[in-house]
């Protein structure tokens, strides 16, 4: 299973690096994942919201093959800084998200990464959550806000708050490999999942 974590200037470090570590630990525990930190352009370094510089492991585009795209947030609540708001205004990432979602790829948003998904018009009428300060803006986009730590609406998965990337990634591990590997990763990382995973029932 190919899982790409999308980086852009101003992304929140924990939104991307926490899921990366969880998923790589899942690989060590036996999960058949190929996890990469990727960019949309040819940037050799990406600068995160707190100054961390990351070297991407690859580049993706509309024709890229993958199973899951993880979209971090970053600086939505700080409009003067580079981050999600800048990417919303530029439009390249939302267009990519829209195309990949239409192609059947699961889109998972951490924190205000959901705002990039909303700009891609894939959250209208769907269940989702984001950082509590951004929930009103997400609701204005026609999204049904679910006050849960992780919201699994099938091909769209979101999580609320910065540290929720840990819980979202652990849910992805459980969803696609089963609870045994997810539990093993929790033990390796000495982390106990918090909050509720809201999941659309098979009958809804």
Topology:
Layout: E1 2-6, H1 13-28, E2 34-39, E3 46-47, E4 53-54, E5 58-59, E6 68-71, H2 84-90, H3 92-102, E7 106-110, H4 113-119, E8 127-128, H5 135-140, E9 144-145, E10 150-152, E11 156-159, H6 164-177, H7 179-189, E12 197-199
Parallel strand pairs: 1-2, 1-6, 2-5, 6-7, 7-11, 8-9, 10-12
Antiparallel strand pairs: 3-4, 10-11
Helix pairs in contact: 1-6, 2-4, 3-4, 6-7
**Relative helix content:** 25-40%
Give the strand tally.
12
Which CATH architecture would you pick? 3-Layer(aba) Sandwich
Q: What is the CA-based Rg, rounded?
A: 15 Å
* Morphology: globular
Mean pLDDT: 96
Strand content: 15-25%
Oligomerization:
single chain
Strand order in space, largest sheet: 5-2-1-6-7-11-10-12
- Report the order of strands and helices: EHEEEEEHHEHEHEEEHHE
CATH topology: Rossmann fold
Number of domains: 1
> Low-confidence stretches at least 5 residues in length (pLDDT < 50)?
none
* Full CATH superfamily name: Class I glutamine amidotransferase (GATase) domain
The number of helical segments is 7
Q: What kind of sheet is the major sheet?
A: 8 strands, mixed
What is the end-to-end distance? 27 Å
| The first-level CATH class name | Alpha Beta
Label the structural class.
alpha/beta
């Amino acid at each position: 299973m190919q899982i790409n974590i999308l980086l852009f200037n101003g992304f929140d470090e924990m939104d991307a690096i926490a899921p990366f570590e969880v998923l790589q630990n899942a690989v060590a525990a036996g999960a058949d994942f190929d996890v990469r930190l990727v960019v949309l352009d040819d940037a050799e370094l990406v600068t995160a919201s707190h100054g961390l510089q990351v070297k991407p492991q690859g580049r993706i585009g509309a024709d890229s093959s993958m199973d899951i795209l993880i979209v971090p947030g970053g600086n939505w609540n700080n409009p003067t800084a580079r981050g999600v708001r800048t990417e919303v205004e530029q439009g390249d990432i939302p267009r990519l998200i829209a195309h990949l979602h239409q192609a059947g790829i699961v889109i998972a948003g951490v924190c205000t990464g959901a705002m990039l998904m909303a700009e891609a018009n894939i959250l209208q009428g769907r269940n989702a959550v984001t950082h509590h300060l951004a929930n009103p803006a997400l609701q204005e986009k026609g999204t049904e806000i679910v006050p849960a730590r992780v919201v699994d609406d099938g091909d769209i998965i979101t999580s609320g708050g910065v540290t929720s990337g840990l819980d979202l990634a652990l849910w992805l591990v459980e969803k696609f490999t089963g609870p045994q590997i997810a539990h093993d990763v929790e033990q390796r990382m000495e982390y106990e999942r918090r909050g509720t995973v809201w999941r659309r029932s098979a009958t809804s």
